[in-house]
Amino acid sequence: MSFKVATPDLPRQFHGKWNKNVYHVLRELGRGANGAVYLTTQGGVKRAVKVGFEGMDILMEVNVLKSLQQGRDSRVGPLLCDVDDLVLNGRPCTFYAMEYLDGDQLDDYIQKAGVEWVPVLIVQLLARLDILHKHGWTFGDLKPENVIVTRQDKQVSLIDFGGVTKLGNAVRQFTEEYDRAYWHAGDRRSEVSYDLFSTAVMMVRLVVDSQTWHMSLGEPRQTQILCDIIRKSDSLYPYRVPLIKAFHGKYATAHEMRAEMLAILRESTVAPASPAPTKQQGSGTGGKWISSLFVASMLLLAGTLYYAWFL
Amino acid sequence: MFSLLRVDTVAKTGRMGRLFVKEATLRQILVVTDGCSNSGMSPVAAAALAREQGITVNVIGVIDKSELGEKGETEIRDIAEAGGGLCDIVYPQQLAQTVQMLTRKAMTRTIHQVVNKELQEILGDSGIEELAPSKRVQVAGMVDELGEKSNLNVVMLVDTSGSMKPKISAVQQAIHDFSISLRSRSGQSRMAVCSFPGKHQHLDVRIPWTDKVEQAHQLTPDLAMSGITPTGPAIVEAITLFEHIKLPQALSERYRESNVEDGEGDLRDHVF
């Protein structure tokens, strides 16, 4: 639909102007706001190649991927393999090649594997976000389409870094459904809490069917609507406290939210028969857990009173 | 290109980044329409005129069930091309995010062009394309940062001819939403909202220059829905809203008056 921001079709084979790597194009994998991604082989290895006409946007993504690669901690997204130029229809284009991650889009995977995977994958996702945030970036355009679950080892990975924004700047790209400002819950400044808000909305989205979801997108767009969905859903209800805290920007780090989600997840998997999944106890992970939960619960007390209707 | 930076000295000291930020004000007109213009001068010529005066013109076509038609699409593309901006055709639901994205991409592009011009002076004819991608990554980071920090003035020019009626609520939402996006930037941002055709002129100023739009919902009641679409003349009048351009006598009186009026109105709002 968008022709000015449109991306070119690649020839079946091309090579980079600087590094001279030769790529054989197999098929298109998808399109983002900044360009199109193709599956290719280069020297017998599968690579995902992203091409766009607006070189600066592509290079910003490279910038992010590069900065993430400098740390040796666990992975956030695909590894960057090559950055180069090619000429398409007489115009110079910038492209980059990255490791090809074979897997399903997050929402497709949940469809196939079941909603019980939602909290597990969200906890994983929060770990990825935590690393990204520690590097000084927020993801920005967080949505199921930008998260994949690898086929082999069921690991969550972020893809499409076009929305990744330096902390403190204005979010570069967003999708209304997962956007904090759309829900009248804050502005569009790149903050840890912006990503956590999107994560919480995404968790709700992944659990409900698309009809319920689309009904909830009408006016007024307030997080109250999301709270109503959470209250009615057996899968979401146990996670209501972290979800609501995320809606209200109460977490300073993704790690904090992850810890609370994980505690609930453990509780529900350790004692699946328990009819009251609301109690929070550190299940044998030591005093640190319990004391942090105590602090958290003190904080929550005020919140709980505020959300008294919810209990 | 325009008063973005003191080109010569800056380029030679190789510190364009720092000075650039101080000087940069980006000016844009964003046209939101759903069809072809049918009155007055060519909107493509008007966009070219805007670009000559340092104003980028972006265009968003809003479609409903009905398509824009080839003629409408071509016009939108040509306006953006001549205005040095970008365009997109979207459904009303996508309007808000498209407004933000086009604005940002057009800013990046403008800054890129200016930076590229600087680089050409340093590197010779070819400019940035002759830099290896690994070097250009650093330039990209700088361009992005400049985009964030520079001042931005945007006039939203909303087509309120009859066929836009069902889409106006989405437009209002987008106006309010855009103000949130602008507020989230580090650089100073201002926006103004105009509708065309105006009651008496080609365009009515709905929201004068402001950095905060809370009153978008007030837009509805007096929106005049009319059959003619004078996109070209409206762009020409929108150009005059940017203060760096000297207004022709007739227009200057009109706009100065309305600006002062609304400025006071704004103040009153803040007092209460």
From TrEMBL, chain A:
GO terms for molecular function: ATP binding; protein serine/threonine kinase activity. ATP binds at K50. It holds the Pfam family Pkinase. The chain crosses the membrane at residues 289-309. It comes from Brevibacillus invocatus. PANTHER family: OVARIAN-SPECIFIC SERINE/THREONINE-PROTEIN KINASE LOK-RELATED (PTHR44167), SERINE_THREONINE-PROTEIN KINASE CHK2 (PTHR44167:SF24). This is Serine/threonine protein kinase. Residues 23-311 form the Protein kinase domain. InterPro entries: Kinase-like_dom_sf, Prot_kinase_dom, Protein_kinase_ATP_BS. Keywords: ATP-binding, Kinase, Membrane, Nucleotide-binding, Serine/threonine-protein kinase, Transferase, Transmembrane, Transmembrane helix. SMART domains: S_TKc.
